[in-house]
User: What shape does this take?
Amino acid sequence: WPYASEDEAVCDVLRLSRGMTYKSALAGLKLGGGKSVVIGNPRTDKTPALLDSLARAIDRLGGRYIAAEDSGTGVPDMQHMRKRTPFVAGVEEKPSDEGMRSGDPSPSTAYGTFVGIRAAVRERLGRDSLEGLRVAVQGIGNVGYDLARRLHAAGAELWVSDIDSRALARAEAELGATVIAADEIFAIDVDVFAPCALGAVINDRTLPQLKASIVAGAANNQLAEARHGLALMNRGILYAPDYVINAGGIIDVYYEHAGLDAGRSALIAHIDRIDDNLTEIFARSRREERPTGEVADAIAEERFKA
Assistant: This one.
C-alpha cells in the first residue's frame, strides 16, 4: 500500500496483526496472529523481484508466519511466492457451489460476513429474513462484491460505493445496486452499513452521518479508535466487531495450510460459527452494557489464557 511514511506502515501493520491475533482466537483456530505490509502502490510498484524478496523474508521465519493474499495482492502473487517458500496459503483449488475455485479466500470472507449480517439483523431488527433489507456496501472488490451478490440473492436492496467505476457499473447491471458517491455512502438511510474497503472508516467525521441501525462489514480495523465503539452503542447502532465477522478468510486459509481435507461442508460449518460468536457477543454486550468490541476483546483474551 502507498503509505505516506514508514511510521504509518508500522502503525497499520501493528493494528492489523493485533486484529489477526484476536480473530484467530475467536474463530477457534490453532494459530496466533501476524500481518505484513509492503510500502508501494500495488498497481505500479509490485514486481516479481519484490515478491521474491518478500517470499525470502517470510521463508527465513521458518513457518512462524504464513502469508496469504489480502489488499493489493491476489492468487497469482501467492503462486509466484510459493516458488520461493512453502509458507504461503491461498493457492490451492477448493470446492465451491460452482465446482472448483482458486485458493482465493475472499469468497469465504464474504460468506462469513453474510452470516454475521444475518446474526446482527436478528439481534437488532428482530427478523430472520433479509428480504427488503437496505444495505450500503462501501467497497465492492473481491470480498465486497461477493457479499453484495449474496445479499442481493437474499432479497436485499443495495447501495454501493467504490473507486473502481467498472466494479460499480457491474454491481448496477448485475445486482440492481444504486451507485453512491464515496463521500455520501455513510449518510444513506439504510438498515446496514457494510464497510468492505480500508479501515478507520468509523471516525469523528463519519459517525455523526450514519443513519444505519447496524455496522457490519468485512473491512479490518473499521473503528478509527476504540472509543468509537462506545459512540456507536450510545447512538443505538449495533456494531459487529470486524475481526469476528470477517474471520471466514482466515478459517479458509487455516484449513488449506493445515491440510484439513474435510470437504467443503466442514469448512462451511466452521464459518457458520461466526453466528454463534456474534450472538454471544451481542448478548453479553446487552447484559454488561459494554460496547461489542470491548466484549469481543474480553472473550478473545479469556481464550488466550484458557
Q: What stands out?
A: The chain has a mean pLDDT of 93. The chain is about 50% helix and 10% strand. The chain has two domains: 6-94, 106-246+277-292.
